[in-house]
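step 3/5: co-fold with iron/sulfur cluster
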Amino acid sequence: MTDLDRDGAPSTDPLREPFTPGMRSNPPELTELTRSDEIVPQVLIPLEDVKTREFVQEWRNAAYNCYSSGHKFCREVCPVVIETRNESYSPTAFHANVVGMERGELTVEDVAADYVNCTQCGACELRCPNTLFTGDFYRFRTRTVDVVKAARALAVDSGVHQEGYRSWNARTAERSHEPVLGETPVGQDTVRDWADGLDIPIGGETILFVDCEAAFYRTSVPRAVAQVLQKAGYEFGLMGEQWCCGGPAAEMGYVDQARAFAEHNMASWRATGTKRILVLDPHDYIAFTEDYPKYFGADFDLEVVLIVELFAEMIRDGRLVPDVPVDRAITYHDPCRLNKRKGIWKEPREVLRAIPGLRFEDVDRVTQWSYCSGAGGGLAVEKPELTAAISARRLSHAGALDVDTLVSACPWSERPLTEAGDDVDIDVLDIHELLATSLGIDGGGSRGETGDRRFAQVRSGPPGRARRASGEPGTADGSEPGTADGDG
Ligand code: SF4
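step 4/5: write tokens
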């Protein structure tokens, strides 16, 4: 029966008859719009380039999911967009490029340089409604990080190189390690130097994998980790031959190189009967939990243990009892690869809350809203000034709190964060080192040129904002550095 309005005419109230696509009773002109079974019909423009065609076929659905939404919520959380306000560097553009390539309007040469502008932090994926809404039902996730990795791989495969990436990966291939120290030689003869005097065997069921930045530059981090493990009576060994995990090469698109490194490390683990890998660096953790299973499938049957989670568990079980007070006011920097990409943010806070003397001012920003350091995804290789700007922004957020210290759980983030910390008079410390201090361990090793410069400053009196306002020694206003405070 047709509803009538007050005048007796047929009702036109849309609420009475809301339009539902696909209803048989829909007027034909509306049915017309929903007739096709395909939401996005396959474009019939033939792509001559086989590699581009395969790339487009793999990523077109993810691309159209974004392209047809057009809301660009991801811009609010993308560290590169926040900093540059450049639409070409946005996750939306990364997806739109795929659509352009499918239609034959763009080639990888046209867009390869844009894909440099991504730290692969994963914030966009968490912010994206395509993940939030449909993810609940279909476990669908807008895979922007993977699209960026695939686009960079397509570029390399097509002979389109970014000069920084190209030379960085060529030098890494030469040395089998990331050339984190510029021209300083790195290799198998020096990769275990960080462990000098700690009496750790090589090989065994459980292996501590120490990433390149930590093994060669910030050696105080692995030394602290090893000594905490020893204090807890946890048995472990060192890698027989350790090459780079291959994660950075994979992130920059040098996939064959990444896979060769992975195969070498797998062979080393097999040779030493390893069943478990302990990892202190979030970048290694991503490589071992996401890249390696893709390379080796079911053959990758090793357990991957993140050290900061292991330490949280040991504190819970009473195997570790931090009892030396550490007099600092801190906030915590969530490494993107732990927090945004793996959902690990509770355990580091558990570790920090167990350390006596710490005043913990959390930023109350986790998941997609937490701040990026700008150090990941190879951004610092091609655009160091952008990494520095993102780090500076992150430190300015810390500076708004009453803290004197930013604690990170990622060795890679600590160099740019520490440099940015100079401007706001905030030290950047590593969570593993801080825990070692509170366990009475004097770890030794180096924090690298950058870290040691900050660490040598006097830290006394009121924390953070109050000290900065008072202009006390150790502030960023040109005051003199003091002696090391022995805090780690
Ligand atoms: S939030 Fe997701 S769908 Fe929306 S523009 Fe960003 S990547 Fe695309």
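step 5/5: annotate
The first strand starts at residue 206 and ends at 209.
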